[in-house]
């Protein structure tokens, strides 16, 4: 049979020779390419690709030209050395010139835009974007219009001056009208939805959502139906008044019934499950959970299995009697046993079972084996801690605790320790814990008293240097590993130049935030502060109890009680702004501060707050979801749900506009919840 197959392949190969101008040449060549696994030794794949590339030259007007060029691009990893990818892309770009009305133009343009990093030097991405933008206008009925539009949207930073991002989005929005039966309608709508944060006033999100909801009617069998419905469910607070969340959930639940084999089924079920209080009576939550479980049993090979399983677990308190939690957990164990632990979702499922303390001997065995092999994973400390909490008397827990203790002593402020602390709270109360685990818990709780921290405070308060090395970049700075094991932040600036990775230097501690296990270092010794002196600093961060202030390389705390009018201070001093403070005391946690700037008075009369009362407020911020208001020296939010239906917030209200509001609630952080009076 193999010999017969080779004969069948050799015949069309022979036919290609000398018939390059035959109308069917490109179809025969493509058919051979599709059978590349059966090609004879006398015709390797690279040679077949070279035959196709040679055919392109001089046959630009042939119907099959784009057919062959696209097929070559799909085989870019196997291209012969005589045909580099950049050359193939240049051939495609050259073909575009003057052929805008050819059927294959949008496909070639789309393919070129999909390879921005491989374009030849004499073909810029901006030049290609200009060609695509010009082509879009007036060709809305062309089959490839959606392809080119989406390709341009993928490169918003290189759009030509003649087509801004807002104009491109509006172009797509306009296209939607009249193309509801086009196969690409849902792709355009979904792409617009993903850009919802950048939509202009001429294209309000509520209008886009309403169009999407209208499109759903009667199109349940269209491939894009599930994606549009899923997107609508993802942003329920933005739904227009004419579309209730209850109605949308009902549509989604109805679609799920009988369509379990359709792509996107599990994703839509997860979206519907996020709104259990909005489900119709005809489809209670328990029924949906059973449907989801049945899907899990038949689709263990699907990539989305683990995510749906997790969604079902989030409703463990609503599981029907016919589906106890233990059975759902057992399904997770069965899935783990049937999949390689190197699959990304494997660790995800295992971690969830550990969090739920699944007491199954087989599960604990495979989890322990996986963790033993995965010690080099970045998240291993947190996973190992979860295993110990789930099975403190398991033999593997002893080994994991020993390793964790060693790692804490070696690096006392790794981010994992801060995250581990709340996990082990219930474990501490156990009276019969093995000694090794008790030792680990003690080191974890006392890690901020280890010698490394004392050395860090000596550097901060007395100016002693500590040796360290740069291990990686982070944002606008670098992460420095000090010789004593502490991990610190280093902000790159003109005074603190970037350091070569693994380069060893002397550093000085600039400030310490013990609550967050955080340290910042600099290359230069910081000036020493003096009790009772006043300094100009900068607001670095606000917290519920006060503000962190940066002063001459140090970080201090300005507690809200050391200020006569905290609300006024917050409104006057934004993050990064200059502020005058006085040193109250120098502690091991850093300087304690008092506000020492100009007197903070409330503009206008003093306002005494009382829930239920009506106040005059000033608008100080406007968002699509509501208004930010100032009532005397206090601040709060008037949410869109407390405004009349169909209110266009962005156009009806102005900054500094006066408004009467009623106080609904005073939150723990002092912020107000407001509404219009008599609602």
> How far apart are the termini?
82 Å
Mean pLDDT: 90
Number of helices: 27
Poorly predicted runs: 1-7
Helical percent range?
40-55%
Q: Calculate Rg over CA atoms.
A: 32 Å
Strand content: 15-25%
The overall strand count is 15
Largest sheet: 5 strands, mixed, barrel
Q: Name the assembly state.
A: single chain
- Structural class by helix and strand composition: alpha+beta
Shape: globular
The main sheet orders its strands as 1-2-3-5-4
Structural features, described:
The chain has 679 residues and is α+β, with helices and mostly antiparallel strands. It has 27 helices and 15 strands. Strands 1-2-3-5-4 form a five-stranded mixed β-barrel. Strands 6-7-8-10-9 form a five-stranded mixed barrel. A hairpin with a 2-residue loop joins β1 and β2. α4 packs antiparallel against α5, α16 runs antiparallel to α17 and α17 packs antiparallel against α18. The longest helix is centred in the middle third of the chain and has 16 residues. The N terminus is likely disordered.
